[in-house]
Amino acid sequence: MTSPSPAKRFNWGNLRTRVVSATVLVPTVVAAVWLGGYWFLALSLVCTGVLAREWGKISAPKAPNAVGAVVGLFCAIAVAAAFLHHFFVAWAVVLIGAFLAGLIARGAVERRADAAYGVVYIAPAVIAMVWVRSLSDGLWWTLLLFVVTWFADIFAYVVGNLLKGPKLWPRISPNKTWSGFIGGLVAAAIGAVAVAELADLRLVWPAAALIGLLGGLATMAGDLWESILKRRFGVKDSGDIIPGHGGLLDRVDGLMFAAIVIAAIRLIDHLKWHH
Predict the structure, then answer these.
(1) Which of 3, 53, 86, 99 is the most exposed place for a label (fewest CB within 10 A)?
(2) Alpha helices in the chain (DSSP H)
């Protein structure tokens, strides 16, 4: 494990780079979410492939391409099965694929479980998003997911750097503060209420705020979990594909956890309305 790096001062140059990257990424994501169908599937598969490649680089520096390809293959099959509404097949592929990835990656990773975990880490989050988007009101629930995640992430970054204060978990992520954590949660709740009101999702505002709060918490947890993983493998960033952000995993680590939470909430709501 690497030792924690010292906390940084607010980097306005990095913020500008992040904004420029966001002006390219956000419209692309929103367009794919809005169009749905094969457009959303295409985006999901491209992201799955990039995430698998980054996981290969993080977990298997001796054979990053091979491990990334194996993890990506099983994740892609699971996501495609979910898109076709074969969810039993999708989850079976996740389990079997994780097992096979561990076997195939023998010698290429420090532990076989590292390759296996790549499938378990990536595929369920993408399956969850594909399922949510496929619902009759899936467009708005998917947008709610992205708004909650983006608001939590952006406001945690800005509020934390402006107000500073006590560190949230200095040993794992020295730049995160309690002020940023609270600011991100409040913003996530407000974002969820705004989307629920605009989209008429049959949610009273306290329920929407709670969903935003839970999604915000999941976003923060996903971000911290990736920090733990990077420290475990001794890397600073998952990649360099996005200027100002590092790798795609650095950008969607919180989204991956939030997707599971929002999908679980939507599933409960779905079952409630069908009974």
Answers:
(1) 3
(2) 12-35, 37-59, 64-83, 87-104, 112-134, 138-163, 178-199, 205-233, 248-273
Contact 265, 214 (CB under 8 A): yes
The DSSP secondary-structure symbol of 236 reads S
For residue 174, the 8-state DSSP code is: E
Q: What residue type is assigned to position 37 of the chain?
A: G
Residue where the block lists tokens 């918490």: 217
Rounded to whole angstroms, what are the CA distances from 209 to 14, 144, 169, 219, 247? 31, 11, 25, 15, 30
Domain residue spans of the chain: 36-134, 136-275
Query: Considering the entire predicted model, what is its pTM?
Result: 0.87
Compute the residue count for the chain: 275
The two structure tokens encoding residue 237? 């960033």
